[in-house]
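Entry for the shared binder. Reason: the reviewer on the internal report wants the predicted structure included alongside the sequence.
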Amino acid sequence: TFKEMAPQPELLDHVDVNGVGIGALLRVINQRIEILLDREHCIGHAYFMPLAAKGGNTLSALAGVFRNQLLPLLQEYFFDDWERIGWVLNDPNKSATQFQFIRKPPGDAAKLFPGQTERIQDRRWTLNPDAFGLIESYRQIFGKQ
């Protein structure tokens, strides 16, 4: 028989990376995923457990979890819908674009498609690799600081 193993963010409540509580971070990410998809897609605590190991709670380790595990999983969950992935990470509400993991590239669709802007939705997104190395990018997943 199948036994559901729900995420246990409380196992990460003691883990802190430069002032970012990892248990709380996992909770807010999962709350957004549950609203946008369902609870079956919530992120498990195991992805973040290496941060709980002695000396594992570094910004570099957190960046690795996000870049190499969390983002690819969100890409799969949301079928590369980068706008919704950005919502999970609170990117549209961050205080500056430098803290956004995902952002719109520069350029104006109206110039490329004159007179057609009502019918064209610009679906271009880029990863901001610099954001992974900024602790403020993770702090602002909770909201503007």
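Summary line for the report: Residues 9-139 form one domain.
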